[in-house]
Design a protein that fits this description.
There is one protein chain. This protein has helices at 16-37, 53-63, 89-94, 105-110, 115-127, 140-144, 148-160, 165-168, 189-206, 209-214, 228-232, 249-257, and strands at 5-9, 46-50, 68-72, 99-102, 131-136, 171-175, 217-220, 239-242. The longest helix has 22 residues, at 16-37. The chain has a domain at 85-240: Aldolase class I (TIM Barrel), CATH 3.20.20.70. Helix 5 (115-127) packs parallel to helix 7 and helix 7 (148-160) crosses helix 9. Strands 1-2-3-4-5-6-7-8 form an 8-stranded parallel beta barrel, surrounded by 5 helices. By secondary structure, it is α/β, with parallel strands linked by helices. The chain is 45% helix and 15% strand. The structure holds phosphoenolpyruvate (PEP).
Length: 260
């Protein structure tokens, strides 16, 4: 059985104090949900929160004992040295991060990250024993000219195809159509299923069936309490990478419950 995951990407939101308060509220709700789940046979998915860098260490400390993982939204493509303003994978590991998001479309679009840079960052993350959520997704323009499948293939090839099957066990893929991120316009469950299934076939072609069956593929793009259940009900959708809705603990909890 592959892992079901619901992850919250806070982006550049919440001061340290606001973030700690939000986590405290979330853990209180989680405690209640766990008590309701007892004896139902249902299991929570893996929950990961991705706060801003400044909160990673404290969030990881607070999350101890809650079975909630903490990750970072980015890391440097370099190991260490004179790279002013950068945060290395090793620093994140030392801060007790378990995951890092790489290749997010906001990083690709606003900070000019290419597939080659993403691939380098993935290598740094693995050297520091971090797990990776690798984001792929097509723009509206690419979808309008029916280029969504070649676009995703190209991203997968250049970001992931240099890895070994063993390394692929520590990769989660997030399919995030750029036109759906932060726009309130989500992919339909059918569009998500079609692309997730396609991604699995590309992974199977390069690696093997086992790798493709075991890899978790998350949907991201305006996923919220209203649409999450239908999207998560698709056979190749293993959970979600949630932006806006993860900033409200109640909404984030509703999205998590939608996968139960
Ligand atoms: C994201 O940034 O990964 C994301 C999916 O954002 P939103 O849910 O706000 O569209």
């Amino acid at each position: 059985m592959r892992k079901r995951i619901v992850a919250g990407n806070w982006k550049m939101n919440k001061t340290h104090r606001e973030g700690v308060e939000m986590l405290a509220q979330f853990f209180k709700m989680l405690d209640f949900e766990i008590s309701l789940l007892e004896d139902t046979g249902k299991q929570l998915p893996e929950i990961i929160v991705f706060p801003p860098f400044l909160l990673v260490a404290d969030a990881a400390m607070l999350a101890q004992g809650w079975d909630v993982k903490v990750g970072a939204q980015n890391c440097s493509s370099e190991k260490e040295g004179a790279f002013t303003g950068e945060i290395s994978a090793n620093m994140l590991k030392a801060a007790k991060a378990g995951y890092v998001i790489l290749g997010h479309s906001e990083r690709r679009n606003y900070f000019h990250e290419t597939n080659q840079i993403v691939a380098k960052k993935i290598d740094r993350a693995f050297e520091s024993r971090l797990q990776v959520i690798c984001c792929v997704g097509e723009s509206l323009q690419q979808r309008e000219v029916s280029k969504e499948f070649p676009t995703i293939t190209h991203q997968l090839e250049e970001c992931l195809f240099h890895l070994t099957k063993e390394q692929m066990k520590n990769v989660v893929i997030a399919y995030e159509p750029v036109w759906a991120i932060g726009t309130g316009k989500n992919a339909t469950p059918e569009q998500a299923q079609e692309m997730h299934n396609y991604i699995r076939s590309v992974i199977s072609g390069k690696f093997d069936k086992e790798t493709s069956e075991n890899i978790s593929i998350l949907y991201g793009g305006s996923c919220n309490p209203q649409n999450a259940k239908l999207i998560f009900s698709q056979p190749d959708v293993d959970g979600g990478l949630i932006g806006g809705a993860s900033l409200n603990p109640k909404d984030f909890m509703e999205v998590i419950k939608a996968i139960l």
